Amino acid sequence: MNDRMTLAEAFKHCAYPVVGHGKRDVRVLLEALSGLEGDEASDMYGKGELIERFESKMADYLGKPSAVFFPSGTMAQQIALRIWCDEQDMAKVAYHPLSHLEIHEQDGLKELHRIETVLLGEADRLIRLEDVMELGEDVACLLLELPQREIGGQLPAYEVLEAIVAHCRSRGIKLHLDGARLFEILPCYGKTAAEICALFDSVYVSFYKGLGGVAGAILAGDTTFMERSKVWKRRHGGDLISLYPYIVSSDYYFDRRIGKMAQYYEEARELADLYNGSGDKIRTVPEEPVSNMFHVHADVPKPVLEEALSAVAQATGVGLSAWVKKLDEGSSAYEVNVGDRYAEVPKDKLNEAFRVLRAKLLEQ
After folding, report:
1. CA–CA separation, 280 vs 299, rounded Å?
2. CA dist., res. 206 & res. 146, Å (int)
3. What is the pLDDT at residue 35?
4. Does residue 30 sit within a domain?
5. 163 with 138: CB under 8 angstroms?
6. In the predicted model, what is the mean pLDDT of residues 29-52?
7. How many domains is the chain built from?
8. How far is residue 75 from each of residues 37, 64, 238, measured CA to CA in Å?
């Protein structure tokens, strides 16, 4: 490896990538399909034993009467909010300023459904009870993301969450859970998915983030709500003739990894300790992770951090990250997700990697 290798190249060639479950290539699907009998019928336009069996399984796990499989969480969440707005006869919802719907969906909720949005709280922190209590206008639904991904995967205390829910109930505001990473926070809260979902009128979960499936999402709620979601799913073009590649991989990796969430959580805390012990120029957000995911912030420019991480990968074979984003002229960051790969990294190699990282940052 030459000294001019980019961070992405160095990560690609490293022997011990720290983050994730592995490469997202066609082998993800091939592995999921390998245990199936070849004569099992596929789903067709949202119906069939294969899709209905999985939907029932997830409804039970989430503690909801009904669930519907969607090809994407973007589709599922826009539809959920549309249904609550129609029911409340009020085209207005509230969510965090850095909600996925606000910053990653090209204003789909506003352009496709003509729903107004209220940005609640401040971008650099969680929504607080006071924010909800001081909401000066009526909204049909409050969306809460657990954990709040864009600020490092932060999570409110469970008592605060319960208080927010109680206040919304008293005002007749529906509650929707953006649970893209719901499975990953169960060890921190010490709650079952059903216990958390009981606080919400509707909930979305993802099958490709912490679980590592190909794609796909579940939207869950009461039976009437879910029947209405099926109509909107058809309107959105979500009823592909067959969704079985997504369903099969979602089911397979759910079974394979749902029992490992506590392991990933503890490993993330261990990894965060290594970062936070690597000098004053680097730290994790939050300081103590609440899931398998956290952000790393460094008080050095993006090119400097890229060079340091590339040097670590080339010197030790340990890949801490494949990318870095610029925060401002003097600081940078990246996201860490702990999965199956972490346990495969020898501890001596990992400790060596952080010694090199600390030395490189001290040079600045």
Report:
1. 8
2. 12
3. 78
4. no
5. no
6. 91
7. 2
8. 31, 20, 8
Q: What is the distance between the alpha carbons of residues 157 and 196, in angstroms, rounded to a whole number?
A: 12
Q: How far is it, in rounded angstroms, from Cα 59 to Cα 232? A: 19
308-335 b/e (C-beta count within 10 Å ≥ 16 → b): bbbbbbbbbbbbbbbebeeeeeeebbbb
Burial class (CB in 10 A: 0-12, 13-18, 19+), 30: exposed
Q: Are residues 180 and 296 in the same domain?
A: no
Report whether pLDDT(2) > 80.
no
pLDDT value, residue 8: 97
Instruction: Identify the domain boundary among 187, 214, 241.
Output: 241
Dist. CA 245–CA 224, nearest whole Å: 28
138 located within any domain: yes
Q: What CATH number is given to the structural domain containing 90?
A: 3.40.640.10
Give the amino acid at 96. Answer: H
Q: What is the pLDDT of residue 198?
A: 98
CATH of the domain at 305: 3.90.1150.10
Task: Give the Cα separation of 254 and 262 in Å (integer).
Answer: 14
What does the pLDDT average to over 271-281?
97
Separation of alpha carbons 154 and 177, rounded Å? 15
Residues 175 and 48 in one domain: yes
What single-letter amino acid sits at 311? A
The last residue of one of the domains, among 192, 214, 241, is 241
